[in-house]
Amino acid sequence: MEQAKKALLRNLAVFSLILSIGYSLIITNRSNSLLSTPYVSGPGDAVVFVLFFLILYMCHIVLSLLHYLIFRNGAWKLSVKMIIFNGTVAAMIVILYSSWNEPVVLLLLITPLVFSLRLS
Predict the structure, then answer these.
(1) Are 86 and 113 in contact (CB under 8 A)?
(2) pLDDT value, residue 37
(3) Per-residue b or e along 91-115, where b marks 16 or more CB atoms closer than 10 Å to that residue's CB
(4) Is the Cβ–Cβ distance between 113 and 89 less than 8 Å?
(5) I need a labelling partner for 66 at 20 to 30 A (CA). Which of 59, 76, 93, 100 fits?
(6) What pLDDT is stored for residue 49 in this prediction?
């Protein structure tokens, strides 16, 4: 249980922040259909970056909490926990990709791998 709390804090404070900044930079510096709407194209790159950063950081918070809820269960083996968490996140990303048809969404598949790192 203690290790799950440490992983939650690490995911919230470090990994979520770094991944959200990285994904936001990639989205802002790449011309794609996510930025082609008239609502997002006008304000400038800084506003678009902050918008995507906040959206992605909120998503990473939800994924961190999901990771904590799955990994705090002591009855399951580690392999079962990894399959449940990574499978759930991969399914959500595939659904998101199929609805947006934007290849940059597939970068989000890195997130469950980073969250599942076992740092001592």
Answers:
(1) yes
(2) 56
(3) ebbeeebeeeeeeebeebeebbeeb
(4) no
(5) 100
(6) 84
Q: How confident is the model at residue 68 (pLDDT cuts 50, 70, 90)?
A: very high
Sign of CA dihedral 112, 116, 117, 119: positive
Cα-based distances in Å from 44 to 40, 49, 69, 81, 87: 8, 9, 38, 42, 36
Predicted confidence at residue 21, as pLDDT, reads: 93
pTM equals 0.79
In the predicted model, is pLDDT for residue 38 greater than 60? no
Q: What is the 3-state secondary structure (H, E, C) of the chain?
A: CHHHHHHHHHHHHHHHHHHHHHHHHHHHHCCCHHHCCHHHHCCCHHHHHHHHHHHHHHHHHHHHHHHHHHHCCCCCCHHHHHHHHHHHHHHHHHHHHHHHCCHHHHHHHHHHHHHCCCCC
Nearest CA to 79 out of 68, 87, 90, 89 is that of 87
Q: How far apart are the first and last CA of the chain?
A: 14
